[in-house]
Structure formats: structure tokens, C-alpha cells
Write a structure and sequence with these properties.
Length: 162
Amino acid sequence: PNSLGPPADEYYYPFNQIQGFWQVDATSVQIGIMHASNLLDDNKRSRVNEEMVRMAYRGKFNAISVFALDNVALNGNAMFSVLRNACGQSVIKDDGNDPACGMDLVMPNMQVSHKLPLVWNIVLFVIYGSLVLMVSIMLFQAFKLRNEGPQEHRLICHGHVV
């Protein structure tokens, strides 16, 4: 049966660490640098985290003590959901006596979109445009005062210099 967490008996059930990340050495780093690549982009393009979530969801691992992933921001919540809802880990009950767990639950959505909706693009444009306008006005005023040279600032009140 599939189980999560540390094993009760390390002699019969050793500590199982699942590694779903790139193995990096000096040569692979040099190749990556020559191709203007990086670990996070490679992880995203390979969809290795998505595949690890699918494998955990389908129960491909007999026991999991630690699950290691690169770029956990990409499908990390899906992995957490799958591991948390594995049979024996969830307290959610279905209509029957057994808890709803594992493949009885729907696999988490792993669609990734980094595009902002049009409304947020307009909001960002207005905010950044306002900031640029304010800074421009302040710089214009600063240069205008600087170019006028030092002046005596006097306050005239009812015809008298104060």
C-alpha cells in the first residue's frame, strides 16, 4: 500500500526520497550558460513537475518520505494537494464510510498562464504612467528653479516686506 511520511520501521521500510529535479554538474551548467538557459526555464519547458504530480496522483511510488522538486512555485500547490489527499492523509469524508482520497478525488489543475488579463495591463499602464508623469513634473520644476539662480524670497504683507 502507498504511504506517506517517515516509515515506522527503517529496516523493512527505508526512508524514501523522491527526486524530481535536474541533476546538475559543471558540464551541464556550462552548456546551459552557452545556450542562455537556466534551471527554472528548463524546469518549466520540460514539465517535469507536472509529470511528478501525475505520477504521485496515480500512485506510482510505493512510499514517499520526502518529495524534492525544482521550482516548487510551478505546480507546487498541485503536488501539495495530491500528497495531502493521498489515502490515509485526508479527513474528508465522502458519502460512504471511507474517506475520499487518492484517485477518488479530481486531479488538480496544472494549467499555467503567466499572461495578465487586459484589465490589469491597463491598470499597470495607468499607474506607471502616473508615476512617470509625477517624476517628470518634479524634475522639470527642479531644473526650472535651478536655472533661475538664487533668489531672495520675501513675503510682502500689506505693502511691508516681512
